[in-house]
Design brief:
CATH class of the largest domain: Mainly Alpha
Strand order of the largest sheet: 1-2
CATH architecture of the largest domain: Orthogonal Bundle
CATH topology of the largest domain: Farnesyl Diphosphate Synthase
Largest sheet: 2 strands, antiparallel
Helix content: over 70%
Structural class: mainly alpha
Number of domains: 2
């Protein structure tokens, strides 16, 4: 195999340094066979419950078209870009954001195919943020396997994340909607701000619920909002439909992140594909911790404060016990429930269809998930 690759790289006139870089990547990790140009995700796992599979089934053909489009658009003349791009995309995931684009467009009666490339844009932006996040957070595992920065390096992950961001905007230009371009550009900017806000709050044991909500709104929920609104726009939806779906996306995005932060203290590492206590290890004061700080005894608060400030898992069992005792998990779940209730109520303004029903299921999935 290595001889074949050597001949191919030489024929393509890759520089010796690039060839060496590619050989190192092959030696140190699995490179998905999709790199060879296949239009399917080899070995990828689309995680999810039976409910998630039912949601996806409503737009099966479109979903498969998105997958093919994503693989096609990962093409690069630089092998390392393709290697890392395929590595993270082939890891699978729930693909909730691109599915949200597809369902929003279909809810508004869309019959074209531009929603396929739009859904891919949203997935690319999400993928790029994951590559960057794992570097910032120094994460070692995502979706049940080593992160890209763990497999390659931090610089490689950052630069390939940049490539994927730029590829998303190349696709946007071809969609040729200035309004969608504006929303996606503004959204990407807000995501960056949210990440910086989260960075500022790291190891801050005095973080408030208000500051936490601002972080998850900009870091996570804003992309769900953009996915739903842009799906409506590409379908030529009315202003009322567009606003409903925009708000729906924001509410399920908030619920999604709230439950994500619950699972960091109440989940299973194998099911989640990441380690329990990751947020604590990174010094992130998420809502279960913030609520526990408000209700804990002085001695318990000292344990929580030290764990947040030092970003250590030395007292993980004690921290989890304190969080559970405080009702922090139930409190956070209730806020997520409130967001889902608002999202479902909004959908009454959308004409009944299998697509609207799938959106209702998606709202429930954001709340009732284990990964």
């Amino acid at each position: 195999m290595m001889i074949t690759i050597a001949v191919a790289l030489t024929a393509l006139d890759f520089a010796p340094s690039m060839q060496a870089q590619f050989y190192d990547a092959i030696a140190n990790c699995h490179i998905p066979t999709a790199i060879a140009g296949s239009n399917t995700f080899h070995g990828s796992t689309f995680h999810g419950s039976p409910m998630h599979k039912e949601i996806r089934a409503v737009v099966t053909a479109d979903f498969e078209a998105v997958n093919r489009f994503v693989v096609d658009q990962l093409h690069s003349n630089v092998p390392l870009v393709e290697s890392i791009g395929h590595y993270i995309v082939d890891a699978g995931g729930k693909r909730m954001r691109p599915i949200l684009v597809l369902l929003s467009a279909k809810c508004c009666g869309y019959e074209g195919d531009a929603h396929i490339s739009l859904a891919s844009v949203i997935e690319f932006i999400h993928t790029a943020t994951l590559l960057h996040d794992d570097v910032v957070d120094m994460s070692a595992m995502r979706r049940g396997r080593p992160t890209a920065n763990q497999q390659w390096s931090n610089p490689s992950s950052v630069l390939v994340g940049d490539f994927i961001y730029s590829r998303a905007f190349q696709i946007l230009v071809k969609i040729n909607s200035m309004e969608i371009m504006r929303i996606v550009a503004d959204t990407t900017n807000r995501i960056a701000e949210g990440e910086v806000l989260q960075l500022i709050n790291k190891h801050n044991s005095a973080a408030t619920q208000a500051s936490y909500m601002n972080v998850i709104r900009d870091k996570t929920a804003i992309l769900f909002q953009a996915a739903a609104e842009c799906g409506a726009i590409i379908a030529g939806a009315t202003n009322e439909q567009r606003q409903i779906l925009r708000d729906f996306g924001m509410h399920i995005g908030m619920a999604f992140q709230l439950i994500d932060d619950v699972l960091d203290y109440d989940g299973d590492a194998v099911t989640m594909g990441k380690n329990v206590g990751d947020d604590l290890a990174e010094g992130k004061p998420t809502l279960p911790l913030i609520h526990a700080m408000r209700t804990a005894s002085a001695e318990e608060a000292d344990v929580l404060r030290a764990s947040i400030t030092n970003g250590t898992l030395d007292h993980l069992e004690s921290v989890i016990a304190i969080v559970r005792k405080s009702g922090g998990l139930e409190y956070t779940r209730q806020l997520a429930q409130d967001e889902v209730d608002k999202a479902r109520a909004l959908l009454r303004g959308i004409e009944p269809s299998v697509y609207r029903s799938a959106l209702e299921d998606m709202a429930n999935l954001a709340l009732n998930r284990s990964s």
